[in-house]
Every structure is written in C-alpha cells, then in structure tokens.
Design brief:
single chain; alpha/beta; Nucleotidyltransferase, domain 5; 2 domains; 16 helices; 14 strands; 19% strand
Length: 401
Amino acid sequence: MKILAVNCGSSSVKCQLFETSLEAIEANLDRQLGRVLIEHIGTPQAVVRCQSGDLERPINSHHEAIEAAVSVVTGAPEEIEAVGHRVVHGGERFSAPVQMDDGVVAEIESLCELAPLHNPENLKGFRAAQAVVPHARHVAVFDTAFHQTLSPKAYVYGLPDDLWRRHRVRRYGFHGSSHRYVASRYAQIHGFARDNYKLITCHLGNGCSVSAVEGGKSVDTSMGFTPLEGLLMGTRSGDIDAGAVLHIMVKEQLTPAEMDVLLNRRSGLYGLSMASNDMRTLLDLCVRGHASARLAVDTFCYRARKYLGAYYAVLNGCDAVIFTGGIGENASAIRAGICESLEALGIQIDPARNEAAVGIEANIARDGAKVEVWVIPTDEGLVIARDTLRALAERHERQQE
C-alpha cells in the first residue's frame, strides 16, 4: 500500500510517501518513495525542499502546499491509498490511531483548546489532503497516544480531584511518534525483547521533550497538559512556577490570551537571548561573546540535564540515553553540554565520536561507560505510515467479523 504521511504546521508541511505492508513492517522492509518539506507557506519566501533541490515558488495555502507535495513525491496521486496525519493532541479519548470521519474530526476540534498551536494546523492539513486526494482513506496518528501508558501517579497534578477530572487537566505528553521510533530502533539495533531495556529519550528541536521508556512503554515524560511544560524550547518557556505566571499577568495587566502568546511564542531560547530561537544561530553568537545567547544555551542544557537525572531515578538506572530531533541529531555542543557532569550516573560521551555524529546513527559514549549514549535520527513519518496501515487493517478485520 502507498501511504502519504503528513506533518502539518502553521507555515510548513512535511510529507513522505511510503510503500509498505504488514509483512514489510515485520521485516523492516518499508520503502520511502519520496519526501518533501514546504516552508514559509503564505510568504514570499515560500520554498519547496526535496531530493532534487530547493525551489522557491508561491505557496499561499496549505491546500497549495499539499498539492505541491503530492506532485513532488509521485507522478500518480491516484495510487495513494491512504494518508496518515500527525495530530498533536488526542486527549484521553484517543490512545491509538483512528480512521478519520466526521465524528473523529469533531473530537479533534474539541481538543484544539488543549493544543491551540497545533491541532488547528493538523486539521488544515487533513482538509487540504482530503481535497487533493479525495479517494484516499485518512488516519489520525496522535502524538499523545504513546504516553497513554503513564500511571496516574505520573500524570496527575496536585489539583482538586473533581476539578482536574472535569476539565481533563492532566499530563498527556507529546512527540510520541518520535520517542516511540527511537526506542524501537534502539531495541532493533540490539536485538532486545521489549521488556529488556530502559531508555531516556531526548527529542530536541524547536519543541523539546524527554521521556523515560521501559520495555518500549512510556512511563514518564516532560511535556504535560500542553506542549508548553518541561524543557526550555525555541519559543516556549518550559517549566515555570504557576505563581510567577499569575504575578506577571497582574503586573503587566495581561489577558489569558496575551499570556499564552508570551509563554508560547516569546519565551524560551528566543526570550532569554532576545536574538533567535534557532540553536545554530545561538551557538554562533556564543562564539562571538553574546552573553544572553550564552545564558539561553546554558539554561537549555541545564534543564535537560536535570530531567536526565530525574528519569534515571524513575527508571532506577538506564541502558541508554538517546538524542534525536533537529538539535539532538546535529548539535554536538548541546549533547556535550547536557551530558556534562553526569559521570556519577555512568553517562560519559567520547568527544571525537560526539563531534562526528551529525545527522547519523551512532553510539557516542566512551568505551567502558556504564550507559550508552546514542544519536538516532527520528523518522516520525515512518511511524505515521505504519500506524496508518495497521489502523486500516484492524478496522477491516472488525468489519469482517
């Protein structure tokens, strides 16, 4: 089956076309037929990035972006039998991928208040793909689903019982497809059974999260009720005292909507540095002696290091730390900064291996280190394609019963 995996953001669309089957998944023989990233949608700087090179062209909407993506990855759109869509927030309702119909779409819309920066954009991608490949079946694959295995003690907040239940205020976790992929890839590399390993997986990009994974299942994760909690991120504050939020709102006379913008779009690396949310830019500024950029980078590494220590305790030790995502896969200086002073936990990286591991799969731990440290490039698109196929196969089986 040919499946298009779609990851849709506010101004970008990433699409990957796969050919796979249940047998191919079992044998790890899925084939990627094409991939494309379209950035800066709706601006004069819109660009289509694909294997044949970058092309600047007008892309004014998500519909045009999906059209362009489909034309790049295949000359025969009618061969696309299914489209898998990344949906960030599935709440408590969705613990597995599901074929999208009016009811499912309505429930995803109801969850937009929990992920206002993401779910609406994911739905834009769905509606655009529906129009471009109307013959295909569409499946939602939820970022939160992987973390449905968290126990109540890991997902509750210290709120009144009736209040958190009534408003669904609990830890949900995100980046599930990425954490799941790198954990399963680690197991595949080592030939482990699913109950034989403990991992701390670090997805570091513009959005960042850390997860404690035991036997292939998430047992804790840094993002919470929304993707705002946890690590310092590109433009998101990460962990902050709720009292500080209330204090700022009073002092600055901010509405909830304005405070939301401050925490989600004006904080994090960008807010601390007042220069950029791009780690590459900040590292360049650090070399030039930019004090605020240095504070942002140091805080980023320190926050991540604290979570590594916390999850080492949660797991009672770990077999490996895994770095993935744009920063995790490419920024050796950040990996070194995070792992600094963790020798007591057996986490030590080899400087030469770390420098060489740019966008490639590699064990960067020192020889003899107690804990392996891996760089594993994520492939959320592959997870989405596989989950799409499985969801459709299970639905077909149910219909045949």
